[in-house]
Amino acid sequence: MKGFIIPVLLIILAPFIGGLVHGLERIVRARMQRRIGPPLLQPFYDFLKLAGKRKMIVHSAHAFLGIMHFVSLWFALALLLLGGDLILVIFLHLLSTSLLILAGYSTRSIFSHLGANRTAISILAYEPVLIILAVSFYLVTGSFETAAVFNYDKPLLLEMPLAFVALLLILPVKLKKSPFDVAEAHQEITGGTEIEFSGIFYEAVYTAKWLDYVFCYTLVYLFAGNNILLGAALILFTFIYVNALDNSSARVNYKQMLRFSLAVAFSLAFLNLILNIVI
Amino acid sequence: MGKQYEIPLGAQHISLLEPLHFKFTTENEKIISTDANVYYVHRGIEEACCTKFKFRQVSFVVGRVCGLCSISHSTAYSQVAEKLVNIEAPLRAKYLRMLVIELDRIHSHLLCLSHVAENAGFEALFMKTMQYREFSMEMLEAVCGNRIQYDFSIVGGVARDLKAEVAGMILQRLKTFLPQLDELVDIFQNNWTLSLKNKGAGAITREAAMRLNVVGPFARAAGLAIDVRNETEDLLPWKEVGFEMVTDTTGDVYARNMVRLRELYISIRIIRNIIASLPESALVTETKAFPDGEAVVRLEAPRGELFYYAKGNKTQMLERLKIKAPTFSNVAAMVEAFTGNEYGSAPAIIASYDPCLSCTSR
Amino acid sequence: MNKIETSVDSLKKDIGAFYKPDLHHFMVMNAVDLGDKIELQWFFCNYAFPSAVTTFYTLISPDTEVPDISDIVPSAWVAQAELADLMNINIENTKKGFVLEPDFESGPLRKKK
Amino acid sequence: MKLAVYRKKSPWILHYNAGGCNGCDIEILACLGPKYDIERFGMINSGNPKQSDILLVTGPVTKRSRERLVEVYAQMPEPKVVVSCGACACTGGVFRGMYNCEGGIDQYIPVDVYVCGCGSRPEQIIDGVIKALDILERKTLELEVSVRLKKVPVEENGQVNRREVAAKIIHTQHTYE
Questions:
Q1: pTM
Q2: Which chains touch B (3 or more CB pairs under 8 A)?
Q3: What is the ipTM of this complex?
Q4: Can you list the alpha helix ranges (DSSP code H) found in chain B?
Q5: What is the second-level CATH architecture of the domain D4-140?
Q6: Beta carbons of C104 and D64 less than 8 Å apart
């Protein structure tokens, strides 16, 4: 029973944890830029403020798709933490992103369309690597279930180091950080798909970003097996790496991103897969 | 053939400081043609200068044409008015004008560079450049009394003197700024992702620059050596204080950044030479004459050649004042240089033109 | 300032004979209202001798159609469009409305009668 | 739970230049930099009208930018405040009375805080925004209650006469608590 309580607690608290991570990240980024930065609870202040704003919607389907994006992402996260099938988790995650893309296409704003286009392209950049990662996990642990990974007694990092590097390379795409934040690209398309959301409906998209943090860092944690200390160390390392990369690079365009992630990250993951098969 | 999208950029957009509207026709995010609307900021200053303000007041009004290069505008106007009333500014006033113009150039170029960095998605470099830029704002405040809108140059001379302790402070701050500038050059030159974004983007050839009469760092980056400071005219003795032409060859965003950064070294040298050899004389040449005849003046503002034409009729009011701002000459080339680039680079390209539309439309 | 007089008919011929893209730099086109006539000016300067400004000028009446020089000097369309609006003169191939809004009386720089 | 308290802690800024000289705009940019760092108050330069709370406007309203100004203002969801930065945005400044200027943004949209100066210093702008936050907190949700038609629509030739209906709507005054 004890092994059941922690995932459920994590699932319920996921938005709070994600918000805290986001707040911490804003402080870390500000300190890296020699600024003071906002308070730690700033994302929650934003959340509560947005709840009190007037609700303006473009059309009801658009708002509904935004909320469903949040809900389905939470489902994907729940399944990941409860030890579900990794392939299913990845495809649920894909579903939630597709809902956001649909929302982006459903308005008439050109920036929203461009954002949806670019989100679709970034899916193309990171999704193959995630699938190969899932297959590698299967080859090592003998099961697609994440429960098997959580209970695996050796750190997976040592068995599939190249896959971890590949994951590190695609994380900026997923978390929308420079140099691969083409889907959000504030200076080019002012937020892309989220441009037409406002008030409480923007909150859904904003909170979904927090869930994405928890989702990504859980993926990182998978590499530690059942070693909690190593997992925490990996998460901390990834956190600092992502922010340092964000602060030391400009945004590349989507073609360069696609080329880089398919040529480097994908081939690293594939090489790792072959090594796992051979050994 | 893909589907063609029309992407509007402006009049309100986060990557733009001022209202400016571009309409890009794109195919798979590649820009095919561009349409520009640059006259959002037209206020009618030329008319007001000839009907509402006396000719001595106009130097304060033309400073408000543009907040970034207000000293260039008021200096250029002061010079053209001095030509009309047949006086010459004292030598010390000329040196002080050059000092403030160069300080202003440092702040303007650093602002442009930080804006390029932000529009390229490099937030940390934006913050760094803005931090280093603050010193020039503080120095301008110490010399002129205001962070922007200096009202320093008046008809006949300058309004304030340079105190010895302020001069010492400038030299000291320049000493701390120099290693910071080296650091910026290093980042702009060697950062890999920034060069992916900047190299080859928004390029213009030397021939096209000549054909379209481009001025300023935009032209110098393409290899066209045009700089009004290179003239040996007696209006402002640039060559005495160590001016040197900076040019590059490729004409893309990267070259424009490099030209701006290298010009900063020249500006620092000029400021040091001015402070070292500041002549003693009066600050203002007094006269009671009224403007008569017509005159033209050219001056190198941070963005390029500034041109003033004035005509007087022996009264307090001018007959005609024509202002040609640097960006005005560049509009035609700006529209052309987008073609063939990614839409993703467009904000960085716009920032690298360093457009000043309040100058252009007045 | 080196002033050369020209006329509306011979303008394109004169500028075409004078202007060399690799030698001359077109700065701006200007107009001054002299009451019943308008003085049009075209300013050029030389890359090699930058302090020498050459001006072509001509006097026209307000309803004359001015030839378009943008086939000789490609960047001249900006200056022409601005002047057509602000001075309310007719320039060949130039539409009004580039600077001013349609609801505004044209020619704000003209002398008030 | 009173949500109005949190408006004060997370104001998102939208900046629009309605025809100024760029002086105040670069000072707003300087506010974002490390020396003044307005992000420590939770402010973000959001650039998207639909997600902003504070509209920072600079410059006298020129004839071509006035429609964009009103449009940007209308796209922002309530509660919202408007801060006019600089002498030109407040009264028209040196440009007052020029033929293409309207002289002050309060001719078109309601202004809550006027920040003086030519150009406004970053300290002044931050001070003005902090003042605007107090006003933002006091704005009530009554602003967003849509006005219902009290009377039966007038039918004329089988069609609703919208102009007459609009004339008969009783406008409710926005009130502060």
A1: 0.86
A2: A, C, D
A3: 0.83
A4: 45-51, 58-63, 70-84, 91-119, 123-144, 164-190, 192-198, 206-211, 216-221, 253-276, 326-337, 346-353, 357-361
A5: 3-Layer(aba) Sandwich (3.40)
A6: no
